[in-house]
Specification:
Blueprint (H helix, E strand, L loop, with lengths): L13 E5 L4 E4 L2 E4 H4 L8 H7 L4 E5 L2 H4 L10 H12 L3 E8 L14 H15 L5 E6 L1 H10 L10 H25 L4 E6 L4 E3 L4 H10 L2 H6 L10 H6 L4 H5 L10 E5 L6 E4 L10 E3 L4 E6 L12 H12 L3 E6 L5 H20 L4 E6 L5 E2 L12 E2 L3 E2 L6 E2 L1 H10 L38 E4 L4 H13 L3 E4 L9 H11 L3 E4 L13 H22 L2 E7 L22 H16 L4 E5 L2 E2 L7 H10 L4 E4 L2 E3 L2 E2 H14 L3 E4 L6 E2 H12 L6 E4 L5 E2 L13 H12 L22
Parallel strand pairs: 1-4, 1-14, 4-5, 5-6, 6-7, 7-9, 8-10, 9-13, 13-14, 19-20, 19-21, 21-22, 22-23, 23-28, 24-27, 25-30, 26-31
Antiparallel strand pairs: 2-3, 10-12, 11-12, 15-16, 17-18, 26-29
Helix pairs in contact: 5-7, 6-7, 13-14, 15-20, 16-17, 17-18, 19-21, 21-22
């Protein structure tokens, strides 16, 4: 329970949690994040939350879900079950009634009766759950009003100030009336008001616009705290937009002052307005009818380093209101190491601010089970899943490194991981707009990965991915590390002392394996086994790769991890034996089966071979009876590193989603690159084979179509791989006699 007395600060920083639960209306369609992430159907999620050590959870009791058709027809069954489970596990609940929503169809953000209707729903929720003491009637009212009334993203899709300010006034008045209704049932109920307080910076000509936005960002909290009197700069603006005197006076008593302010802060929350639009060729150009400018990310501007970040924003809010606070959303949609670095940085920052005397109660691990399409502000349906503390893509939530860190922090312990040896991308120079891509990758001191196979496609690609993610590594060739020689393996471990080895070395010439069996078995079976034995003895993590060719292709469906190996050739046999021997020697090893590489950094792949052949004016022949799962190498590398950072083990299938024949693959390349697909000819002979990969553990890679488009976009920068340009012949002019 929240105490308003600043002297009564919690004894320790608490771990709170949050389920991404937005129900937002776009056009005439509603999107429900609890349903899209599967949380609606998984009761066991409550136990996972409790097992992390979460003391309080922001949880949906959402109007649109419970009373979609009428306030007289409420269905509390799902909420009854979940809230009872949370209560049984001793987890306090912050009940959320509107989360970026505009309400059911019988109201909207522009409905002047919305406050009364929300209050009626709030009263019913309080009567149903009188044991809940903390409430958030409207999540992020200012942000929701901007996205719905000013930027046009969400219903009612307004793009003007009157719509924006009417929506905001309704949300804030709804919060006031809802808390009155709740307190009539629960006299000690507390208001936990959340808001995103990103700040705006600018070049000199746009300081007026930045100042306007920086005053606006406090508007929801100022209204609730009773600060918007006639002396407030926004009082006349609100009145001029149609918000009446009586509506504004209702706030002046301060009755709606939050008991706790929840700050939701994201790395891109802070913005930089720049009139020099030529410096940002890839940015969308905007303006305010007075000036044209680019709205860029402040975190990428060098001179703003000292003024940006969550610590600065929390200090501002504390100095302005002196109300107890919590960080009520911490999430970063990025690679796992970056997610981990962000969460760790926010947690440690919060601890330091408490030491300064700030009454900062908790850090909230948000999007516990991830989110879908938030990268597109929910306005487009791509099914793009961002992992949270748990990865739910298999249907059974899998704890990630972020969950492991959260559990340690909740227990009052530190959390150590080699990924934390390097700073997050928001603290590395390559993030800056002016950073030159020609500069050498930065080197960081810290525990290193050891990557074998320096001359191979995958080894080189993994090194690039590690550079991008600031994961220190050393890339070894056979001269330095011969995996078939146990003494060479031992010497490399002693020299480099890695925290993990990623083995990409091996015999890759599949047809030649039949005549070079000894070399194939040595590289593909004995070598990985040597690494596994050495890593097990040294306590070093190991990742090694296997192949779809451990299967004979006769099953008639894509293979999953539990399907027994059934190799038909020497190459597949060498990989199948390696899988078994590696896991016998080291049960915590990670074995990744993959298939049919294509990538952007080398020319040794099927897709490039198709394109280069067609560019020479030749036709291309490919088998139409053999189906595979083409795998985009950059996607594979990042998934590998994510699984390694998470500490996963066992056999995983990692391939882009989809299955197609080599012939179909070649035609898709031809069509995408602008060549006549008829130049690709089918090779019809041979026995049908289907070695495509699926996964019981959750597909980690995006659909093949999306990956191919990325590959084609890179190839369009290669003039030698483009279709010949047709030249229109000039008409022959015949002179009249």
């Amino acid at each position: 329970m929240i105490e308003r007395d600043a002297d009564k600060v919690a004894s320790k920083l608490e771990l709170w949690g949050g389920v991404e639960c937005t129900i937002v209306r776009v056009g005439d369609e509603y999107r429900d994040q609890s349903a899209e992430t599967g949380h609606t159907l998984r009761k066991d999620d409550i136990d996972l939350i409790a097992d992390l050590g979460v003391s309080t959870v922001r949880y949906p009791i959402l109007w649109e879900s419970i009373a979609p058709d009428s306030l007289d027809r409420c269905d509390w069954s799902w909420t009854d079950e979940r809230l009872a489970m949370l209560r049984e596990r001793g987890i306090e609940v912050i009940g959320g009634l509107l989360h970026h929503g505009s309400g059911p169809r019988y109201t909207s953000l522009l409905d002047r009766d919305l406050p009364a209707k929300l209050a009626e729903f709030a009263a019913r929720a309080a009567e149903r759950y009188p044991w809940i003491e903390q409430w958030t009637p409207v999540n992020e009212p200012l942000t929701t009003a901007r996205f719905s009334g000013l930027y046009g993203h969400w219903y009612p899709h307004g793009r003007d100030y009157p719509t924006f300010l009417r929506a905001l006034a309704n949300e804030c008045r709804g919060t006031l009336e809802a808390m009155r209704a709740i307190r009539s049932v629960i006299p000690g109920a507390k208001l936990v008001q959340t808001e995103d307080l990103g700040k705006t910076f600018s070049t000199a000509p746009l300081r007026y616009q930045a100042a306007h936005e920086n005053e606006r960002r406090w508007l929801s909290l100022d209204l609730l705290c009773g600060r918007v009197t006639s002396a407030h700069n926004w009082h006349s603006i609100l009145f001029g937009a149609g918000v009446g005197w009586a509506e504004l006076e209702a706030f002046e008593s301060g009755e709606a002052t939050p008991d706790l302010i929840g700050i939701n802060h994201y790395l891109t929350s802070e913005r930089f307005l720049d009139h020099r639009i030529g410096l940002y060729p890839s940015h969308e150009i905007g303006g305010n009818r007075r000036n044209t400018y680019v709205d860029a990310e402040a975190v990428r501007v060098k001179r703003l380093e000292a003024d940006t970040g969550i610590a600065a924003r929390l200090r501002e809010a504390w100095q302005r209101y002196k109300i107890p606070m919590a960080v009520t959303e911490v999430h970063h949609g990025c690679h796992r190491d970056e997610q981990l670095r962000w969460f760790a940085e926010v947690w440690k920052t919060a601890g330091a601010l408490r030491d300064e005397g700030m009454d900062l109660r908790a850090v909230t691990l948000w999007s516990l089970f991830g989110n879908v399409d938030w990268r597109f502000l929910l306005t487009q349906k791509h099914g793009f899943y961002d992992t949270g503390a748990f990865d739910v893509r298999s249907g059974t939530p899998r704890p990630t490194a972020v969950a492991h860190a959260a559990k340690a922090y909740a227990a009052g312990e530190d959390y150590d991981h080699p990924a934390l040896d390097s700073p997050g991308w928001w603290r590395r120079p390559p993030r800056l707009y002016a950073w030159s891509g020609r500069c050498k990758p930065m080197e960081f001191d810290g525990r290193k990965l050891l990557i074998t196979g320096a001359t191979g496609t995958l080894g080189q690609a993994l090194a690039r991915a590690c550079d991008e993610r600031a994961l220190p590594y050393c890339l070894t060739d056979r001269a330095e590390l011969d995996i078939s020689d146990p003494r060479s393996v031992a010497a490399a471990l002693e020299k480099h002392r890695p925290w993990a080895i990623i083995n990409t070395a091996g015999f890759v010439r599949v047809p030649d394996a039949e005549t070079e069996q000894e070399a194939c078995i040595s590289a593909n079976t004995i070598g990985p086994e040597n690494l596994a034995r050495a890593c097990a003895a040294a306590g070093v993590k190991l990742v090694t790769y296997s192949s779809d060719l451990v299967f004979d292709g006769r099953l008639g469906r894509p293979y999953v991890e539990s399907d027994p190996a059934s190799p038909t050739g020497v190459y597949g046999l060498s990989k199948a034996r390696a899988e078994r021997r590696v896991l016998e020697a080291m049960d915590q090893a990670l074995v990744l089966r993959t298939s049919a590489f294509f990538g952007i950094w080398d020319e040794h792949n099927f897709a490039w071979h198709v394109l280069s052949t067609l560019a020479r004016g030749e036709s291309f022949t490919a088998c139409e009876h053999s189906e595979v799962s083409p795998t985009f190498v950059p996607d594979l590398c990042h998934a590998t590193l994510d699984l390694l950072v998470d500490g996963e083990s066992g056999i995983w299938h990692v391939a882009n989603e989809g299955r197609l024949s080599w012939y179909e693959f070649a035609r898709r390349v031809a069509e995408g690159a602008g060549f006549d697909p008829a130049l690709v000819r089918p090779l019809g002979s041979g026995e049908p084979s289907l070695t495509a990969l699926a996964s019981e553990k959750g597909g980690l890679l995006r659909p093949f179509d999306h990956a191919l488009e990325d590959w084609l976009r890179h190839m369009r920068g290669r003039p030698e791989l483009q279709p010949p340009q047709e030249v229109e012949e000039e008409p022959l002019e015949i002179a009249a006699e």
